[in-house]
Amino acid sequence: MFVERVWDTCLWYLFVERVCGPCLWNVFFSDVQVPACSTGGQESLFADDLSVFKKFDRYASNDDILKEMHVTRVRVHKWGRVNRVAFDPAKEHLVILHPIDGAGEPFKFLGCMFDCKLVMNQAVDKILSQIRPKVKAILRTRQYYDATELISQFKTHVWGIMEIHNGGVFHAASYLLDKFDSVQQHFLDDLGVSKSNAFLEHNFAPPTLRRNIGVLGLLHKRVLGNAHPVFQQLFPFFNDVFRHPRQGHNKQLYGHILEVQFQLQLFKRSIFGMVDVYNGLTQEVVDLKTVKVFQSELTKIARTRCQAGDANWYFSFACR
Fold first, then answer.
1. pTM for this structure?
2. Angle CA(114)–CA(109)–CA(318) in degrees, nearest 5?
3. Boundaries of domain holding 255
4. Residues 6 or more apart from 50 whose CB is under 8 A from it?
5. In the listed set 204, 238, 265, which residue is the last one of a domain according to the structure?
6. Each residue of 276-299: pLDDT tens digit?
């Protein structure tokens, strides 16, 4: 009976998703939010994926949290039985996200591996395990290509993998993120090219600098009004929260720093900490009309610092 019900569900899913289209599937699946939010959580739907998030008091015990979330899961499963939708047990997780009291098995979210204490060591190690063999393969071809061509291959075959989860690992400790810089630096050492020359002559910026400019580009996208509404709501303009504007350019963002009482260092090295960096940019930079031009201007600023002999040019726009 269970196999038949799952098979019927699969056929119904294929009919709705592929014949009726994604819009009708979203209509069919949308009322799952009723049981998902029944205990006060906030659902997040993406196609047939369902995630439920809920904030708890920091003094609540893990046992009480898991019991309440289990009630949510039972109600969602009940909805599934009524609507002939089966949920894959292998993809179900009950986890508590907290830097100290996190509990549960690591899980994959939008392709990025998360541990429940948000250390992100597993995500970083997985990326490193993918890029290191590629770097070795590129270096084996040194006798056939010059430095310019090898650096171009690194950009093509390594950067995409190295940076795909920048948003997920950005808050990780510096000792973990420095591993990406180390891989790129070893590559340059084997080529006999310095970090500054690679940047000035080949536009080969260190991962730290690229990561910082990438996150600032995301914040600029929010300022331009082109970001997702949820992201725009997460980062309101300072004037919309407080009556008196901050000093600086006229597009100051509110980074929620005044609301933080615990784990301040973790907060400061996240995208919320980058809000202060964005607020410290000049008016001319934040007035740029596209993210591409904005990031190009930041790269020019870093290049100018490098040419001037600034020893910390690759930490330009850093929040840590």
1. 0.84
2. 60
3. 211-315
4. 32, 36, 43, 44, 76, 87
5. 204
6. 999 999 999 999 999 999 999 999
